[in-house]
Structure prediction request, 75 residues.
Amino acid sequence: MTGHRYTVILVHSTSHAIRAEKALYQAEISTKLIPVPRHISSDCGVCVRVERADQKAAVETLKRIGLEVEGVHEA
Prediction:
């Protein structure tokens, strides 16, 4: 398999990540909260991991509920 299977979405805080996880669950988008990978940021924190195929729908869902997305990275 080539390429990346997952996308990680960074948000401003752990509480925003929890809100994001709930919103994505309600939108039936498979998600998991994970520590922010070190190659993306040296800050401690939590980000949202989604299947790469769900990236666009996930970002749109988060914007719709008013969560600002800090970054989107392949993982």
About this structure: Residues 1 and 55 are 19 Å apart (CA to CA). The domain at 6-74 is CATH 3.30.70.260 (Alpha-Beta Plaits).
